[in-house]
C-alpha cells in the first residue's frame, strides 16, 4: 500500500476582523463541571435549557464518547439556534473539528449532493497523529562559515551547548542557508529537527541579556536547555480526514486545499485512507476525534440527502451532526408528504431535539445592548427601550440591523451616540417584514402578479390614473 501523506507545510491565513451577526459570541456560557447556566454569559442571553442541553452534547464530543448521533435545534426564527451552534464551535477548542454548512450550498456546488455531504462529514472527523522525532536543542556558542572565492558550496561549523555538554556540528549549504534565513547568531537558543532539518529559534539566552545592541524590544529570553543535546520529542498534529483525502487524491497535493477546487474524490482513495487510519489507531499512532457537523436550514435538504445522512450516521467513522430548523409541519423536498420540522419520520426517530423559545423583553434588551457594545456604539436608554419594543414586535434581526443604520445617521449629524431620534428615522427609512407585507397587500394592483400582468392605471397608491392631457 502506498504511503499516505497527512501533513504539509503551509502559511497561516489571517482574516479580517469583521463584525458579523454572531461575532459577539465567545462560548455557551455554561460551567461544564456543574452545568450551571448563566442568564447572560459569553455573548449568549436566555435559552438556559437549550444551552444546558448543548453543553451536555459538547462535553460528550470533547471526551470522544459520542459519534454518529444527530441533534436537531428547533424553534421559531430569531431564537438563537445558529448562535447556540456558534457557541458550541467556540467552546470545542482547536483540536475538535467543527464544520458549518448551509443546506442550500449542497445544491449550488459543482459536484453531486452525496459527494458534498461526504466531504462535509469527513471534514468533521479529526485524526490526531503522534510522531516521535529527534531534536537537537541548545544555545548557540559560535557559528563559523567558510565561503569559497568561486561562490561554490559553503561549509561551516556550529558550536552548540546545553548546561551539561557542548558539541561542534559540521554544516552544509542547506543548513547555512536556513541559519541565515532565521538570522541565528551566538547566544540564541535554537531547536533543529533532525529528520526535516527545520530550524526554530526559541529565544535568546538569559546569559546574553546584557547585550543591548543585539536585542530588540520584543526579544524573548529563555533558559539554556539542560541535559543531552539530542532529545526525542513526541509531536502531535491534528488533521481532518478530508484533508488527507485531498492531499492523496491528486498530484498537486495540499495546494488543492487552498484553491478549494477539490472535485469529486474516488471512493477507492477514501477506502485506502480508512484502512491506513485504522492501522494507525491499532498501533497507537493515531486517535480518531469525532467532530461536529452543523447543518443550518436542514429543512432545505431533499429526501435523497436525508437518506444519505441516515446511512452515514451508522458508519464507523461518523461525526456528531447538529441541525437547525425553524419549520413546523412542512413538505419534505422531493416528496408530496408533510412532516414535523421538514424531516422524514424515520430520520426524525433517531434525532435528539433541543427546543428554543421566543425571547422575553428583558432578553431582547440585553441582546441589543451586547450588539451595540460589539459594534462600539453608545446607545441612550430611550433608544435602547425603543429598539427593544421594535425587536419584540418586528423581530430581533430587524432591530439589530437598525443599530447599524442608526449609527450612520448619528455620525452624519456628528453626534457621539445613538438617540431615540436616530432610531425613529431609521424605522421610517427601512421597512420591517410586517410593514412590507402590509405595503404589498395595499399596493398589490401596482405590482406584477404571478401571471405577469400589472395595472399601470393605479399609480402611487391612488385609484385615479395620471392625467396626461395638455
UniProtKB/TrEMBL annotation:
Keyword NAD: no
GO terms, molecular function: ATP binding; DNA helicase activity; hydrolase activity
Keywords: Activator, ATP-binding, Chromatin regulator, DNA damage, DNA repair, Helicase, Hydrolase, Nucleotide-binding, Nucleus, Transcription, Transcription regulation
InterPro entries membership: AAA+_ATPase, P-loop_NTPase, RuvB-like, RuvB-like_C, RuvBL1/2_DNA/RNA_bd_dom, TIP49_P-loop
A biological process from GO: DNA repair
Catalytic activity: ATP + H2O = ADP + phosphate + H(+)
Coiled-coil residue windows: none
Pfam families: TIP49, TIP49_C
AAA+ ATPase domain sequence ranges: 67-345
Enzyme Commission (EC) number: 3.6.4.12
Reported function: DNA helicase participates in several chromatin remodeling complexes, including the SWR1 and the INO80 complexes.
Family note: Belongs to the RuvB family.
Protein name: RuvB-like helicase
Source organism per UniProt: Lithohypha guttulata
Encoding gene, per UniProt annotation: RVB2
